[in-house]
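hey so u asked for the seq, here:
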Amino acid sequence: MQRRFNAFVPIFSSHALSTTPSNALALIAADMAEVDRVIAQRLDSGVPLVGTVSQYIISAGGKRIRPALLLLMAGALGYTDSQRHNLAAVVEFIHTATLLHDDVVDESTLRRGRPTANESFGNPASVLVGDFLYSRAFQMMVDSGEMRVMEVLAEATNVIAEGEVLQLMNMHDASLDEAGYLRVIRSKTAKLFEASTRLAAILAKSSPDVEAACADYGQALGTAFQVIDDVLDYDGDAKELGKNLGDDLREGKNTLPLIIAMQRGTPAQRQTIQSAIENGEMEALAEIVEIVRSTGALDATRAAASAEAERAIAALSILPTGPYREAMHALAAQLLDRRN
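ran it, structure tokens below
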């Protein structure tokens, strides 16, 4: 099967990694099982619809990357207390809440290959259960007894909300530049990656330098992850992705592949993309996909993600050597070879 993240191959070929992404996740398999137990326990509610909707979206699959990063970073720092499982569940709850709200705002109908929660249960239920997950997450973070933990998660949740509003403001704006695009994804997506890895350092009572490096790793990896997600909207397979191709264009989102294509394309090509963004037009999707490919915008976007992955790997140099650090290196180098 064709690789979708070829930009990583020349950059990391010299590392000869012995750890693959699968092995990296196997390293924390027992921890992830405990996180699943915590999630199931804390989803319990006296209101049946809360549990039904929550279980629906959480059981839909996904890589659980954010809790996995927290656990891997905790392992690298030698932190073994059970509080890591509680906070890993917290970041998954916050992420799930954002998905519920995102799909309502974006009017999405498909996620991970099946109908979204709002499609199945309606917008009101999705919004209110998302609110439940946020409030449950804040109940759980108090269990840590660490004011710094609460400070980081409160800030992350606030920044994510700001990122959502920024994205809403940027809808149908064909003039959005790369700096504006990065501001959105570093708020909306990368912030929770960053918080996940920072939390591990806080739990382990690491030095400020180590904490900053852990946060840098998470932010860079989260940025690369979202950039590649935006590539796949124009270079993916709907069945593999579990979402509708061209959804970003339908929603009027101006993402990096389109920004670069407009910079490099002819005036006519630029006008075609601009019109589609401003009006949410899907009729020209096939033509726009061809423009994005012919201008080299996909390769340029992958190169931008590759640079973020290199930044993530550089941040790991401060950590002790060992299987956990190698696992996070492997994730940065290879996990973003993703099709869904």
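Residues 1-17, 238-242 have pLDDT under 50 and may be disordered. The CA atoms of residues 117 and 218 lie 28 Å apart.
lmk if thats what u needed
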